[in-house]
Amino acid sequence: MNGTEAPGGGTKRRARGCPVCGRPRDPRWRPFCSRACRDRDFLAWVEGRYRLPVIEEEPDEEERPADAGRREGG
Ligand SMILES: [Zn+2]
Asked: What is the pLDDT of residues 10-50, one digit of tens each?
């Protein structure tokens, strides 16, 4: 199968650019426009995944029940 995109297609599709900056994305770094944006998104993902818990000033605290994760409507 050949995944070549025909230039000048007929469908009027809204060009969706880089999800990070919105610039036209590069097939090399898709769906991003550059490595910088790709790394940026990746880092954001990693930070969210390995986010360190905020340690309150309570050293003598035993296991606390995990707070219910608050989600933002998206
Ligand atoms: Zn970008």
From this structure: 555 566 799 999 999 999 998 999 999 999 999 998 888 88
Q: What burial class does residue 24 get, using C-beta atoms within 10 Å of its C-beta: 0-12 exposed, 13-18 middle, 19+ buried?
A: exposed
| Residue 55 CA to ligand 1 centre (angstroms) | 34
- Give distance in angstroms: CA of 47 to centre of ligand 1: 19
22: left (phi over 0), alpha (psi -120 to 50) or beta: left
The full set of domain ranges for the chain reads 17-50
The DSSP symbol for 33 reads: S
